[in-house]
């Protein structure tokens, strides 16, 4: 018997419309992400072991604003630099056209790191005090973002055989009628839900300064590297050296850098 082939539901991208005002699902997912960070941050503030004596509710509110700016600016510039530098060099006026789409996680991460560094400097706090507090909150936002990708039917997966992958589905936006991995849901489960559980547990006990931040880089890098095997590479880039996608190549230094941070964090404790 030929297995059924699922088709992406093709959700209306507009979640709520009141007159001329339209709220898109993807915008709601961003809002959910930031609200989730705020709520989970309040929970972490209740634990002295995770929040530390210097992090306050006001700090949480302010660092969220810094994080939003870092995500938007870094994510857009990362997409411009990592994915389409030649195009945007020829069309510089479109660099700020965020409404046309085009955000890169790795660029957003660099933007957030820069924003948190500025926040820590202005508040005279240790950089890792800030990042160790924020890191376990981030995967919730990542999960919301990947759900937004799925609702929009974008960033679909590679072609899959429904006889082997019974949940494979056709994404009409791909334009070829082929069943594919719903890789957005894989990433939501790995980079979002699984990483959240791991980091929330890992940070529930006192860890050396920087260890939680390093573990975030390792966890995200590993999960993103694995998920990329099921995700369709960007059509304008394809696969790169060694058959790896740009997402995988960008994840490798994340993993190595994260492992280095964790190792140095534990080494400092032994030396002290």
General description of the model:
The protein contains ten helices and five strands, in the order βββαααααααββααα. With about 270 residues, the chain is mainly α. The protein has one domain. Helix 1 packs across helix 3, helix 1 packs antiparallel against helix 7 (about 140-150) and helix 9 runs antiparallel to helix 10.
Mean pLDDT: 87
H/E order of the elements?
EEEHHHHHHHEEHHH
**Radius of gyration from the CA trace?**
20 Å
Shape: globular
The main β sheet shows up as: 3 strands, mixed
What is the terminal-to-terminal distance? 66 Å
Overall SS class: mainly alpha
Number of domains: 1
What is the number of helices? 10
Q: Extract low-pLDDT stretches.
A: none
Helix proportion: 55-70%
What is the spatial order of strands in the main beta sheet? 1-4-5
Q: Report the strand count.
A: 5
Percentage beta strand: 5-15%
């Amino acid at each position: 018997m030929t297995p059924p082939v699922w088709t992406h539901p093709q959700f209306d991208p507009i979640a709520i419309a009141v007159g001329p005002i339209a709220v898109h699902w993807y915008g709601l997912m961003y809002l959910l992400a930031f609200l989730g960070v705020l709520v989970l941050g309040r929970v972490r503030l209740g634990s002295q072991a995770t929040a530390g004596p210097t992090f306050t509710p006001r700090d949480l509110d302010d660092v969220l604003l810094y994080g939003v700016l870092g995500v938007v600016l870094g994510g857009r510039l990362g997409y411009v630099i990592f994915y389409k530098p030649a195009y945007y060099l020829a069309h510089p006026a479109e660099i700020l056209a965020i409404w046309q789409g085009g955000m890169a996680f790795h660029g957003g991460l660099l933007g957030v790191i820069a924003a948190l560094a500025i926040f820590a400097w202005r508040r005279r706090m240790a950089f890792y005090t800030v990042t160790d507090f924020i890191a376990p909150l981030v995967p919730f936002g990542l999960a919301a973002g990947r759900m937004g990708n799925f609702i929009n039917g974008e960033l679909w997966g590679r072609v899959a055989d429904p006889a082997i992958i019974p949940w494979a589905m056709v994404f009409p936006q791909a334009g070829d009628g082929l069943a594919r991995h719903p890789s957005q849901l894989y990433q939501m489960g790995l980079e979002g839900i699984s990483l959240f559980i791991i980091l929330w547990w890992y940070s529930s006990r006192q860890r050396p300064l920087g260890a939680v931040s390093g573990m975030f880089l390792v966890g995200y890098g590993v999960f993103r590297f694995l998920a990329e095997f099921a995700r369709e590479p960007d059509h304008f880039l394809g696969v790169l050296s060694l058959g790896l996608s740009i997402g995988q190549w960008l994840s490798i230094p994340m993993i190595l850098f994260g492992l280095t941070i964790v190792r140095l964090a534990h080494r400092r404790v032994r030396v002290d």
